[in-house]
Amino acid sequence: MSADNTRTDEYDLIVLGGGPVGENVADRAVQGGLTAIIVESELVGGECSYWACMPSKALLRSAQALRAAQHVKGAAEAVTGKLDVRAVFERRDSFTSNWSDDGQVKWLDSAGIDLARGHGRLTGEREVTVTDADGGTRVLHARHAVAISTGSDAVIPPIDGLREASPWTSREATSAEELPDSLAVIGGGVVAVEMATAYAALGSTVTLIARGELLASMEPFAGERVAAGLRELGVDVRTGTGTGSVHRGDDGVTVTLDDGSTVVATEVLAATGRSPRSGDIGLEVAGLEPGRWIETDDTLRVPGSDWLYAVGDVNGRVLLTHQGKYQARAAGDVIVARAKDDTVDDGAWGRHVATADHSAVPQVTFSFPEVASVGLTEKAARDAGRAVQVVDYDLGGVAGASLYEDGFDGQARLVIDTDRDVVIGATFVGPEVAELVQTATVAIVGEVPIARLWHAVPSYPTVSEVWLRLLEGYGRQSA
Question: Which InterPro entries match (predicted)?
Fold first, then answer.
């Protein structure tokens, strides 16, 4: 302890941010024999555990289960009630541990990872100063590395009056304790369609306002089918129009659209993207500009700093928890390797790189219907100069799908690189198609030749039989 009451400690690795990404970086480092400390100013477990992945999917699951029962004759006749909104919220709360991180802190302790509560800033090379809630400071020195895993924040776009109207972001939408009578959702991406799905199913009157089409980065049929599904749930879907202004009055929020129409709702949700949480963490020390995405190489190290890493959302590569954890495993392992002067496996698909971020990112949108995708869309593949063939199939025509749900409606697509005869993209849309995406991910990452995929026989009768139908379709097109 120094004379000015500033405590100084040394670790092999300092991690800024205690979400799933930071936890995984630290855990891999400790498993490799290093010492590590996490610095966290909020809840250990991060956005995913308390305001994103877990609570949002908990809000969606009850309605999904009810709908599944209602679409199977025999089970449908047994379902006579409606969703219990309070029970849904209580189940959601159980997955967030009522916004307590006691369990996560215990896990850190069991994993041999230290924790510093407070706001961490880079104050020198391999140095982080932590300021706690009482203003006390603690200086941490890293023998080998500092990993920034501070995540991202929801963007509130510069729409006239929006910020003054105290809009919901994803945090408020996933943690609300009361169901609003009506909700206006601004945005057309994953958060927008998932929260529109959830609140419409729970009983709110929902209007979704998107400047473009829904899920614009995916295959066009995905957004079209989700828009139709939302309308089936009673959502007023307005695409192709922006939001001009927002005003909160005594009677709620009035949203004025660019086309001159208005929407009046109890609450308004801004779901228009994320920004890096990098504004006040001392990036100047490393010659970086605060508030920007932090560029890294494929080992997640910041160019020009052999000691600094940026992992997860904050580097802007892929803003998905599972990809952040994938990056974290690579980063933690490479930090250990470099600390021990071991060989660094940084070639394509090496254990110390995040190669999959470029071409094999799986994602599930838990909307109605679900969208599961991985790899390149047809447009992205063609824009990249790939020679491709696209194969579509009606999921409702698969025997396992018709058994799974009466009137099963969905669509599957493969994007195939015809020069190499391998799958480079896949999209599935339909009831609970999330479990189909891992097979496609393995096919893409493994670059499994189509000739070999023919021997991966799907069990009958399952929805996975769509793979056989897709390969047959490719064979007919190629004949």
Answer: Class-I_Pyr_Nuc-Dis_Oxidored, FAD/NAD-bd_sf, FAD/NAD-binding_dom, FAD/NAD-linked_Rdtase_dimer_sf, Pyr_nuc-diS_OxRdtase, Pyr_nucl-diS_OxRdtase_dimer
Query: CATH topology for 7-45+101-153+276-356?
Result: FAD/NAD(P)-binding domain (3.50.50)
Q: How far apart are CA 370 and CA 389, in angstroms?
A: 24
Q: What is the pLDDT of residues 186-233, one digit of tens each?
A: 999 999 999 999 999 999 999 999 999 999 999 999 999 999 999 999
Kindly tell me if the per-residue pLDDT of 143 is higher than 80. yes
Alpha carbon 321 to chain centroid, angstroms: 5
As a whole number of angstroms, the distance between CA 359 and CA 446 comes to 12
Two structure tokens written together for 372: 């599961």
Q: What percent of the chain has pLDDT over 90?
A: 97
Q: Residue 99 contacts by C-beta under 8 Å, 6 or more apart in sequence?
A: 43, 50, 93, 175
Average pLDDT over residues 162-181: 98
What is the signed CA dihedral for 97, 102, 104, 107, rounded to 10 degrees? -130
Task: Answer yes or no: are the C-beta atoms of 425 and 376 closer than 8 Å.
Answer: yes
Helix or strand holding residue 236 (H, E): strand 236-239
Q: What percent of the chain has pLDDT over 70?
A: 98
Q: Which CATH superfamily is domain 163-271 in?
A: FAD/NAD(P)-binding domain (3.50.50.60)
- Start-end of H helices in 412-465: 437-445, 450-453
Q: What is the value of pTM for the model shown?
A: 0.95
Q: How large is the average pLDDT for residues 354-368?
A: 97
Residue 219 contacts residue 378 (beta carbons within 8 Å): yes
**C-beta separation of 444 from 424 below 8 A:** yes
- All structural domains of the chain with their residue ranges: 7-45+101-153+276-356, 163-271, 369-478
Closest CA to 361 of 417, 322, 314: 322
Residue 4 has pLDDT above 60, yes or no: no
Q: Residue 3: pLDDT band by 50, 70, 90 thresholds?
A: very low
**How far, in Å, CA of 24 to CA of 20, rounded?**
6
Domains 7-45+101-153+276-356 and 369-478 share a fold: no
The pair of structure tokens assigned to 371 is 């969208």
For Cα atoms 67, 72, 77, give the angle at the middle one, nearest 5 degrees. Answer: 85
| Count of other CB atoms within 10 angstroms of residue 399 | 12
- By C-alpha distance, which of 172, 180, 140 is closest to 38? 140
- Reading the block at residue 68, the tokens are 């599944």
369-478 folds as: Enolase-like; domain 1 (3.30.390)
The more confidently predicted of residues 479 and 184 is 184
Residue 2's pLDDT band (cuts 50, 70, 90): very low
110 conformational bin, left if phi > 0, alpha if psi -120 to 50, beta if neither = alpha
Cβ proximity of 322 and 362 under 8 Å: yes
